[in-house]
Specification:
With about 300 residues, this protein is an alpha+beta fold. Helices cover about 25% and strands about 30% of the residues. The protein has a 6-stranded mixed beta sheet with strand order 2-16-11-6-9-8. β13 and β14 form a beta hairpin. The longest helix is centred in the last third of the chain and has 33 residues. It is elongated and about 115 Å long. The chain starts with a helix and ends with a helix.
């Protein structure tokens, strides 16, 4: 049974990778948002400092939010609602320099033992809330880390993660405790590629001080030639997308802006907590409340009986 599950997981992972690579070939404008880059480059998406690695390429900070129950019982399915808000009217710069809609993606880092609920454990209502979203574990040995996206932000700026809680009776590594949950959410393309190179969704600066002697615009890029004081020239190549804000004959300082900042997206992270509750504690608490109520009732009755005796 275990070998069959492992093989199925590997097949699903290979298919997912092929789909992602096909998407990269067909839609290069959104490829920078694929979680596969983080999966290939980092064993764990959360660094020792607490920062989620998506922030290495998506430099702008934006808010995200997550809502989970305060406590859950073992071996139960619950919802984690993730919100990645942004203005649906804005358009981002695509890889080809044109404008297009924003995509969103998320990484949810659950406590050890928690994982995406299998379809057979999900109610029909929950399946309807999840919709067509495809969740996948970060890696075969990190099923508690879930990634999704990129998906259209106009449809999925709010996502529902169906989570299955672990059972300490079956997993000795899990206890009835309070656990942290970490969320990273992104909307739009990144400003850097995993190689460290700039994308066309960021600002470009002058590489040297001097005078702009020529600007050559082509379909894919713009070449800005800067002549330094000693007469030598430096060419700054800007990909299609950012808007040029300098003119020929303009004197520039080193690092002065050549373009606007076209980025309208950004990455955000937050965290929350959840309690894996022991059912025995819940039953004990209910019994305590029941005995307390009964004791209060008897006290009231006893008091009324005492008052009747005094009146008699």
């Amino acid at each position: 049974m275990q070998k069959s599950l492992t093989r199925n997981f590997r097949i699903q992972s290979i298919l997912a990778s092929l789909i992602l690579l096909a998407g990269y070939a067909i839609f290069p404008s959104v490829s920078e948002a694929y979680p596969i880059y983080a999966q290939q480059g980092y064993e764990n998406p959360r660094e020792a400092t607490g920062r989620i690695v998506c922030a290495n390429c998506h430099l702008a900070q934006k808010p995200v939010d997550i809502e989970v129950p305060q406590a859950v019982l073992p071996d139960s399915v619950f919802e984690a609602i993730v919100e990645i808000p942004y203005d649906k009217q804005v358009k981002q710069v695509l890889g080809n320099g044109k404008k297009g809609a924003l995509n969103v993606g998320a990484v949810l880092i659950l406590p050890e033992g928690f994982q995406i609920a299998p379809p057979e454990r999900m109610s029909e209502e929950l399946k309807a809330k999840v919709g067509n979203l495809y969740y996948q574990p970060y890696s075969e040995d990190k099923k508690n880390i879930i990634v999704v996206g990129p998906v259209p932000g106009s449809t999925y700026s709010e996502m529902v993660f169906p989570i299955l809680s672990p059972d300490p009776a079956k997993d000795s590594g899990v206890s009835f405790l309070k656990y942290p949950i970490f969320l990273g959410g992104n909307r739009g393309r990144g400003q850097l590629y995993p190689t460290g190179e700039k994308s066309n969704n960021t600002v470009y600066n002058a590489s040297t001080a001097g005078t702009v002697t020529s600007i050559t615009v082509s379909k894919k890029s713009t070449a800005v030639v800067i002549t330094k004081e000693d007469g030598s020239t430096v060419t700054n190549t800007i990909p299609a997308g950012p808007e040029l804000i300098v003119l020929e004959g303009q004197t520039l300082k080193a690092d002065q802006l050549l373009t606007n900042n076209p980025n309208v997206g950004g990455f955000g992270q937050t965290e929350t907590e959840i309690v894996l509750q022991d059912p025995a504690r819940v039953k004990g608490l209910i019994l305590f409340f029941a005995f307390t109520i009964i004791a209060q009732v008897f006290l009231v009755l006893k008091k009324k009986q005492f008052e009747k005796v005094q009146l008699a």
